[in-house]
Amino acid sequence: MRLDGRTAIVTGGAKGIGLAIVRRLASEGAKVMIADIDEAAGSAAVDAVSGDGEVRFTATDVSERLDVHNLVAKTIDAFGSINALVNNAGIVHAADFLDLEEADFDRVMGVNLKSAFLCGQAVARHMVEQIGNGEEPGSIVNMSSINDTFAIANQVPYSVSKGGISQLTKVMALSLAPHGIRVNAVGPGSIMTDLLATVVDNAEARNRILSRTPLGRIGDPSEIAAVTAFLLSPDASYVTGQTIYADGGRMPLNYTVPVKD
Q1: Looking at the whole model, is its pTM more than 0.85?
Q2: C or N: which end of the chain has fewer Cβ atoms within 10 Å?
């Protein structure tokens, strides 16, 4: 198994894409710490995934520095080391630009962008210590989006935060390369999470999504998990500073495609 003997933290790992990543990493041999603010969902996730491997949960507000340091300490206490980090936690807030409240902008930026900085810095510092003790360098994956490039008019802080994630990924990759620590990002397109499932119940909305997706279908969280596991694994040993877009071909598209009924 590609991740056998490694320990990973997955933020926002209690549901959706995060939970799919936890499942995949555990199935590939990693010990996984789920970090999520939703305690009930986190406990349920551990029960759901524990059959695939060793998985634990720590209630964490990833936008708070002390919570992040507590997360790192608990992970080291539980597993002895940290070899991988997936900064997946993310939220949205819909509002027109002219109506957006400062507090809502700050809240989304805190969870989506600041958390990746806080967790990335805290985990990378520990990884550097491990390297000094003779361990192999680790790897970090940030969850970006096709909306690091595309924009949604009523998703101001989300779009801005994802643009920031892609730049943060490059900065982290360059800064940590001398230590051998790799940093990459995954940019999902339309993925069948619980939130999107409520949207595609509407035929018009579903057709609008598929008309801009050349592969003609909505992605599954497991497909994002597969890309994430690859980037964390030795198979991606010469890949750093990249954003891999798993979007069904949407990013290169400059027209719409026919939708099958």
Answers
A1: yes
A2: C
